[in-house]
């Protein structure tokens, strides 16, 4: 079985911001990040998907993600809360606006300090899912993650 690291390198990634989707697309393009993401999601003008749990639920319905091989990445408690509300593994990052206490109190599965630590942290989370699967099959029914795991990669800020 291949390791998560060999199958992972952002094979399907979405960027989600609670900001209007049109602004979100411009932000991602402005910072030269569009090439790293298959899609960009945000809220609608009528307020639809303005709350992170709703936005993540929308992404889970809209995107062809393998729920076992995906991770949510965020820098604020609402990112982690949105992931938890949808049964998604979450990874808190400390190069944004939130701090360690905020992310830990929100229930992040793991917290990383530097962008250079991100890939290894995702690998650890995915490896936990792979290793916990019965008979070597992929499964997301672990004690830590009883619901399907699916994700978006968002609110990333270059170092």
UniProtKB/TrEMBL annotation:
Signal peptide: none annotated. It comes from the Bacteria. Gene3D superfamilies: HAD superfamily/HAD-like. It is an enzyme of class 3 (hydrolase). GO terms for molecular function: 5'-nucleotidase activity. Its EC number is 3.1.3.5. Keywords: Hydrolase. This is 5'-nucleotidase.
């Amino acid at each position: 079985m291949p390791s998560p690291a060999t199958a992972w390198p952002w094979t399907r990634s979405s960027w989600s911001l609670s900001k209007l989707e049109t602004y979100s697309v411009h932000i991602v393009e402005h910072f030269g990040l569009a090439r790293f993401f298959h899609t960009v999601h945000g809220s609608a003008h009528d307020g639809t998907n303005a709350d992170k749990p709703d936005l993540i639920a929308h992404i889970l319905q809209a995107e062809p993600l393998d729920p076992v091989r995906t991770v949510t990445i965020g820098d604020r408690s609402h990112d982690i809360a949105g992931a938890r509300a949808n049964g998604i593994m979450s990874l808190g990052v400390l190069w944004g606006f939130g701090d360690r206490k905020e992310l830990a109190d929100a229930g992040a599965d793991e917290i990383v300090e530097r962008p250079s630590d991100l890939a290894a942290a995702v690998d650890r989370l995915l490896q936990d899912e792979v290793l916990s699967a019965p008979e070597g099959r992929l499964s997301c029914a672990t004690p830590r993650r009883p619901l399907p795991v699916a994700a978006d990669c968002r609110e990333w800020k270059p170092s």
